[in-house]
Amino acid sequence: IYCANKKTSMAFLTNLICVGVCLILNLTLIKPFGIMGGAVATAVSYLCLWVSRIFTTKKIIKINFNIFTSVFAVAILIFQAVIILLDLKFCYTLSLIATAILLFLFRKSFKEFLIFITNFFRGKKYGK
């Protein structure tokens, strides 16, 4: 979207902000938490990138975006990460349930993706 609208400076700016966030968080979190601090810093910087790209892209084109669905999906992903990190007894069962919820939440997009992949391997063009 940025390239097509000749607004690549917005992509650069959002990347630059998130690199700064990642660098500051890595310097802050790695010493006390080790590799997990680096992982959290990277996750938070990607979250900042996602949010900043939503706001800057909305200035270029209209986006149909459901904030509730997106926040709920991110919360489920965070839940999955936490239960696996804590190594709970039923972590894989809980993670499977969370994945099923995500698939249900994005069932329309997932169905479209499966149709696209199926058509791709059959040699058909998208939309035909």
The number of E-state strands comes to 0
Task: Count the DSSP helices.
Answer: 5
What's the helix-strand series?
Answer: HHHHH
How much β-strand is present in the residues? under 5%
Return Rg in Å: 18 Å
* Cα shape: flat
Structural class: mainly alpha
- What does the largest sheet look like? none
Structural commentary:
- With 128 residues, the protein is mainly α.
- The protein contains five helices and no strands.
- Helix 1 packs antiparallel against helix 2 and helix 3 (67-85) packs antiparallel against helix 4.
- The longest helix is centred in the N-terminal third of the chain and has 26 residues, at 8-33.
Summarize the structure in short.
The protein has 5 helices and no strands.
Write out key terms for the chains shown.
mainly alpha, single chain, 5 helices, 128 residues
Task: Please outline the helices and strands.
Blueprint: H1 8-33, H2 35-58, H3 67-85, H4 91-105, H5 107-122
